[in-house]
Amino acid sequence: MSVSTAKVKLTSVIRDLRVRWDQATDHWNDSASAAFEKEVITPFEIEVRSSIKAMETMSEVMISLRKDCADDHH
């Protein structure tokens, strides 16, 4: 799987998680759900977004490396 493909999948997963969590809180909106969001959902979203940013950086580095390697062969 390419970095770009993984990034797209993670972006989709985190978007789906947020939509489903928002739907869940329509029916489960108490102190336990607030604690779950604070302790599980929000940290997970932060980690996934951080991973997506890292993937973007890795993709840029890989593109640059490919270009540099191609330039070295000419």
Number of strands: 0
| Shape, principal axes of CA atoms | rod-shaped
Largest sheet: none
Q: Quote the average pLDDT.
A: 92
Number of helices: 2
* Rg over C-alpha atoms, rounded to the nearest angstrom: 18 Å
The helix-and-strand class reads: mainly alpha
Note poorly predicted spans. none
Number of domains: 1
N-to-C order of helices and strands: HH
Strand content range: under 5%
Helix content: over 70%
Distance between the termini: 29 Å
Give your account of this protein's structure.
This protein has 74 residues and is an all-alpha fold. It has one domain (3-72). It has helices at residues 3-27, 31-72.
Quick summary of this structure?
The protein has helices at residues 3-27, 31-72.
Please describe the structure with a list of short key phrases separated by commas or semicolons.
74 residues; 2 helices; mainly alpha
What's the helix and strand layout?
Elements: H1 3-27, H2 31-72
Helix pairs in contact: 1-2
